[in-house]
Amino acid sequence: MTVSKINCNKLLLFGFFLTVSLSFKLLGADYYFHPRTGLDANNGLSPSQAFQSLAKIDDLNLNPGDRIFLAAGEVFSGSLIIQNFRGTPDQPLIIEPFGTGKMAKIDAAGQEAGVLIENASFVKVKKLHIQANGPGDTSGDIPMRVGVLIRSTRPGVITSNIQLEGLEIEEVFYESAGYQRGAAEVKTANGTQKYGWGIRLIANGENQQIEQVDIKDCKIRNLAHTGIKLTGNNQQSIRNVSITGNLVEKVGGPGIQMSGVKFVYVAENLVSHSGSADDSRKWGRGSGLWTWGSSMVMIEKNQFLYANGPGDSAGAHIDFNCDNIILQYNLSAYNAGGFCEILGNNYNCAYRYNVSINDGHRIKGENGAFQEGKTLWLSGYQGSKKPRKGPVNSYIYNNTIYLKKDIVSKIAIDNRSKGVLIANNIFHIEGESRLVAGDQYKSDDEMAGGLEEVLFKNNLFLHPDNWPKQALIQPENSRYGNMEFTNPGGMSLEDYIPQKVDLLRGIPIPFLPSDQFGLINGLNLEYDILGNLLGANPGIGAIKPIEKP
User: Fold this and answer.
1) pLDDT value of residue 42
2) pLDDT value, residue 10
3) Helix, strand, or coil here: 36?
4) CA–CA separation, 78 and 103 (whole Å)
5) Which of 429-468 are b and which e, b meaning 16 or more Cβ less than 10 Å from the residue's Cβ?
6) For residues 212 and 243, is the Cβ–Cβ distance under 8 A?
7) Spans of the chain, pLDDT less than 50
8) In this structure, how many other beta carbons lie within 10 angstroms of the beta carbon of residue 45?
């Protein structure tokens, strides 16, 4: 063997070891925590040398690729705090259990948050059980209690690429059991007192920003206020958020709420019993989902069930100052406030291909209710200090709406609305229909004046009285008849497959006259709510009729 070949082989061998060495370095360190057998004096690098307290994380010099392992089946007290960490796409910080396959639990009683991620990037948190029931050792400067809080506080430093997966968050309350909120608190816009929340994203200061957050397959139950809440600023500082596959139930406020956001995808979530009042510490009011000051939000394939409260508390509603909010392919059922609610100063928003079952059953004046429940509500309300301004270019089409006989269908339409399309819907209303004022602190003008740019045609009603004769807009080219649903009153989408197809020829959905934009993903969809190909005939209602040979 020549000298040159020997030197070449040595160089290759050196390169191999260098690569392996760098690879190990890039993998990062693993830190183990055990609340019973660990000691903070340990090095934390193995289960036998585990740290004990979550506070020890503050002493670690965390690097990209590091992992924090919490002992499965154990209970940690306090708060897990990650601040100013900057990971990379290939080397995130991972926080998850180790051991038997069970979750690790964090009891954050008395803390601001069970998990706090602040001014950080590329962090993944998986399979933790978080509880924070009551104040414990708290102080007056803690403004709230949150299961997981993601926050931006440093101007110019973006909190980004955060993933929450498979978490269970429950029993999050600021006060001790037995605390009684005053009756007036539920009438405030969002609550004025201190509450417990599930997951919160906050970037509401100047030059603060949160981007690329994924919240999936989490279970959020039994807490004082909102299950998942996004709070950005007027520059829509929270962007590119995905909320998918989550269960939110029995929360005292809304199930999911977002303000000051842009580019949000909400899909395949089950939200049940939002606005719960089964604990005196809960707010007791809330839609399954609502947006405010938000843009480009797609809400599809969700279930919004049993929303409760004396006001709002629809399945999902669009509060004021929004644009391009699309609700499609959702099941909405037994929500006190109603099915379709679009408030003032909203642009190009839509409800399409949804099924609504017995929504809007609330009666004003009963059980403290200060608003009527409604089947459909277009409001001019855009805040108590601004003149009323109706929504612009509202598209409501191919929905299936079922109301049993003992529920009065109530309609509220502000005369300042501009651009209204109501087409290809099934209004299967077995009982009475009535025009009501919107009563959002001040009643809508539903009688005087006239709406501009209205297309209200080709809807199917059970009978001619399904639409109030006093309403400003009246349907044209309507159809009437019983679709003979497979199981009316049932809770599955398949219960609303229409059996009579001769009345169900739909019309293509056109642009409203002054609308130059339309809707995100286009006006005419390819599939119905069950995934059936629509073809040339979009049909009437959310489910394509079965064509008979």
Assistant:
1) 98
2) 37
3) coil
4) 16
5) bbeebbbbbbbbeeebbbeeeebbebbbebbbbbeeebbb
6) no
7) 1-25
8) 13
Give every CB contact of residue 434 below 8 A, 6+ residues apart in sequence. Answer: 408, 409, 410, 411, 468
Closest of 235, 219, 218, 228 to residue 254, by C-alpha: 228
| b/e 151-167 (16+ beta carbons within 10 angstroms → b) | bbeeeebbbbbbbbbeb
- Which residue, 245, 239, 241, 235, is CA-closest to 265? 241
Contact between 196 and 108 under an 8 Å Cβ cutoff? The reply is: no
Burial environment of residue 469 by CB neighbours within 10 A (0 to 12, 13 to 18, 19 or more): exposed
Mean pLDDT rounded to a whole number for the chain:
92
The type of residue at 113 is: A
**Phi/psi of residue 274, each to 5°?**
-65, 155
Q: Cα angle at 451 between 450 and 456, to 5 degrees?
A: 120
Strands 316-318 and 289-292: parallel
C-alpha pair distances (Å), 81 with each of 152, 249, 259: 14, 26, 25
> CB–CB of 137/107 below 8 Å?
no
C-alpha to C-alpha distance for 82 and 418, rounded to whole angstroms: 48
Distance CA 62, CA 477 (A): 67
Instruction: Work out whether the CA dihedral 396, 397, 399, 401 comes out positive or negative.
Output: positive
DSSP string for 410-431: EEEE-TT-EEEEEES-EEEE-S
pLDDT of residue 442: 65
Question: 269: which 2 tokens?
Answer: 């979530």
Residue 250 has a pLDDT of 98
- The full length of the chain comes to 549
- Residue 123 CA to residue 209 CA, distance in Å, equals 16
Q: What is the pLDDT of residue 449?
A: 61
3-state class (DSSP) for residue 103: coil
pLDDT number for residue 1: 38
Amino acid (1-letter code) at residue 289: L
Q: What are 89's two structure tokens?
A: 């796409």
For residue 182, give every residue at least 6 positions away whose Cβ sits within 8 Å of its Cβ, in sequence order, or none: none
| Backbone phi, psi, residue 316, to 5° | -150, 135
Q: Are 51 and 31 in contact (CB under 8 A)?
A: yes
User: Which residues neighbour 5 within 8 Å (Cβ) at sequence distance 6 or greater?
Assistant: none
